[in-house]
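Data availability (excerpt). The following record was deposited with the supplementary files.
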Amino acid sequence: MMFYNPEMLTERYNAPDTLKCQHTFKLTQGNCLYSDMGRIFCSIVQDDFGWHDTVCGNSNKNNIEEKWGKLNYQAAHNNWQQNGNDSFLVELAKYGLNERDMGANLNFFSKVGVDADGNLHLDTEAARAGASIELRFEMDTLVVMHSCPHPLSKASEYPRKPILCELLQAEPVPAR
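Predicted structure:
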């Protein structure tokens, strides 16, 4: 998922600032997602998964083809093997944005660990059906998302998992 200010599309989610100001490598309940202008896009108000990847980026065409072969829409229709980079670009184009406008993304429901040599790995044991997260948006936000595989996925087959997104009206923040 990526976040932009719809009133000023040059303002976008900033992963390094989000992590360093909260002294963390992962995001979970109680964390905020900051823009590159130091403003809060949203806060994580509920999270029963507990770990969301902020550093691995997203899959690309070569990554997907190396792991699962080439399967395009013309050959496979809705079972084609999409990649995160191109999926983001398709959505960004709808708002006049392109590759140079891509910012950092957030991989929800993806626990990434680091071994003793500093290598990153996706913890596939952590994933479970029914996990949920609730974001409270503190400002108008353009949300761009895809459900393509994580770039570190080692699944034997292209993973296809259903997702559910719900938009609800939040109560106003109480005055202090």
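Summary of structural features: Residues 2-58+104-144 form one domain.
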